[in-house]
Design goal:
This protein has eleven helices and 13 strands. By secondary structure, it is α/β, with parallel strands linked by helices. The strands form four sheets. A seven-stranded parallel beta sheet has the order 3-2-1-4-5-6-11, sandwiched between helices.
């Protein structure tokens, strides 16, 4: 199987390329940088073919997909700076990447008759209540620009293609980029106490585990909407921080605070990021390991 992966300079795209390599598939990585700019760890993403691609350029997208002739495109590239997306002068760029760029890829996939896997987010929902969001729920009500742009990306894929997977994830962490775990560990070197939000509830997603699932999907024809985060129960950011420090052996006084007490950010954050993953097992896909186990493996991966 030949797979084009966008956004290989990010956390998820990096791991997807390595997973393709492990399984003997032919992967072609792409990102906007002229040369691959991710973690230089000597693994597959550094040795497999790479092509520079601006996904907002429809002609370039069509040309690359025509040239590569992939069986599937795993679309990981996205604008993910949630707060920055709220700036008036960034809004057009955010939609150009997350909505128009995704539409460009969907149209090219349709022309090439290949599968497409689009990575979306819990932010397409309003984040209210305590009931987990089901994968096929269409009660969309994004509360920030990032969520709105990702929802437009979802619509572009679903309205253009038949052979597609839309996979919503949350609270992502991986080796190739910044994330909550790295932030907590960095802050622990400067402070002996931290305040962490306790009223936003969800589950983390380890890109190494997610990459295996995405390749499983690419190998299948079980199309549709899915939710994919690690198992292990729903937690708050406060709970996650406490477990990070416990497993890392770091002494830290962590104080739980509400979102209101912590301070308002530019972008509204969802209080309910609970994602129902039952559709994965219903369709024969293996669910991700527990987030506690994922955290332990991740700390070893980053050699902390």
């Amino acid at each position: 199987m030949k797979v084009l992966v966008t956004g290989v300079g990010g956390q998820l795209g990096h791991d997807v390329m390595n997973e393709l390599h492990k399984r003997g598939h032919e992967g072609v990585g792409s990102d906007i940088a002229i040369e691959y700019s991710g973690a230089k760890d000597g693994t597959a993403v550094c040795t497999m073919p790479y092509v520079s691609l601006d996904i907002t350029d429809a002609d370039a997208v069509e040309s690359v997909i025509e040239s590569v002739k992939p069986d599937a495109v795993i679309h990981c590239a996205a604008w993910t700076a949630v707060d920055l997306a709220e700036d008036e002068d960034k809004r057009d760029t955010v939609f150009a990447v997350n909505a128009k760029g995704t539409l460009n890829i969907a149209k090219a996939c349709k022309k090439a008759d290949c599968k497409m896997i689009y990575i979306s987010t819990d932010y397409v929902f309003d984040g209210k209540g305590e009931t987990p969001w089901e994968a096929d729920c269409k009660d969309y009500a994004p509360q920030n620009v990032y969520g709105m742009s990702k929802l437009e990306g979802e619509k572009a894929v679903a309205e253009t293609l038949d052979k597609y997977f839309i996979v919503r994830i949350a609270w992502v962490f991986g080796v190739n980029g910044n994330n909550f775990i790295k932030t907590m560990l960095a802050l622990s070197k400067k402070y002996d106490s931290l305040r962490v939000v306790c009223d936003q509830i969800g589950t983390p997603t380890y890109t190494l585990d997610l990459s295996r699932l995405l390749v499983d999907m690419a190998e299948s024809e079980k199309y549709g909407y899915y939710h994919a985060t690690n198992e292990g129960g729903y937690i708050s950011w406060y709970d996650f921080a406490c477990e990070i420090f416990r497993q890392a052996g770091v002494e830290m006084n962590v104080t739980p605070v509400t979102t209101a007490e912590y301070g308002v950010s530019k972008a509204a954050r969802p209080f309910n990021s609970r994602l129902d993953k039952s559709k994965l097992s219903d369709n024969g896909f293996e669910r991700l390991p527990t987030w506690q186990d994922a955290l332990a493996r991740y700390l070893k991966e980053i050699e902390f």
